[in-house]
Amino acid sequence: MNSKNTIFILDAGGTGFKFSAVQDSREIIKSFTIPSASVTLEEQLRKIISGFHETETLCGCKPTAISFCFPGPADYPNGIIGDLENLPLFRGGVALKDMLENEFQCPVFINNDGDLFAYGEALDGILPEINKLLEQQGNPKRYKNLLGVTLGTGFGAGIVIDGVLLGGDNSAGGEINRMRNYMYYNTSIEDSVTIRAVRRVYAKEAGLVFEDAPQPFDIYEIAMGRKEGNKAAALASWEEFAIVLADAIANAVTLVDGIVVIGGGLSGAWPVFIPTLLKKLNEPFVDFNGNTFSRMEIQAYNLQDANEMVAFTAKTGKMIRVPFSNKEVWYDPMKKIGVGITRLGTSSAVAVGAYAYAVKQLGL
Q1: b/e map of 143-160 (b: 16 or more CB within 10 Å)?
Q2: Which of 148, 241, 266, 320 has the highest CB neighbour count under 10 A?
């Protein structure tokens, strides 16, 4: 790969536009953020343009391509952004790709943050880490598939199958934020696994109005006993979070059958929700006759726990004889997946994914 290929990156959100530049899958400038709040669409678009011009100045070069994540709904292949909830000025369809190609005279690629996060972790994060550990343990098993989920103001996801990022026919592959909420049947999962959800449950359990509820990091600190507050309410917040998240992941990973990696602002609270999450993933179903059977055909392991990581990567299985011959083949009846937290950091994983996506599209 040509080390002089420089891809400009943008991580766009409802509160800020974060810019960077990447060569050889590594950021070459210190990222910077421009607040996204604007009065008009023109003002907001000019912030994006000026951010990329500032990136040019900082890295001292023109971009080979621009590749970035932007919230949906969108027609990502054509770079047209639709009606956004967290950026309401983008209404009626905005041709963002063509606008930037006209301004910077280079190819522009747009995707969503969940997709690029998953792609980055699959290429340079948790997936190669796991496969390296398997190799070190003498385990012939290798993982090629990954489900990446991001937890913050919204709930996003991306899917990588055998090294290929899943887009879907309508740029909606992996949009599991529209899954039904396990605990509240008539609403979506986002009402239990986002920042507002953690605050909502805490407020309810502590007898507060929503506006007086602490932010999720403080609720995490209260749950860990490191900060004063209603610990029972804090634990209840993360309990609901974990239960609903587990149901969504179980449904999605049953189709993906691969490693699960979790990112986003709320992923830092993993010590209080990962144990319940894994417990629920492995909790059995009970049929009408009282018989139990596995929730998933695969066993989930906590990759944040050193002992479980060893158990997950340990060589299992045996050689079995091929009928009517002297040949033997390896057979491992154990079906395992692992669930872990981002290895690269969410923003870095998105940057790596955006870079790799652009390089692949360019054929470099």
Answers
A1: bebbbbbbbbbbbbbbbb
A2: 148
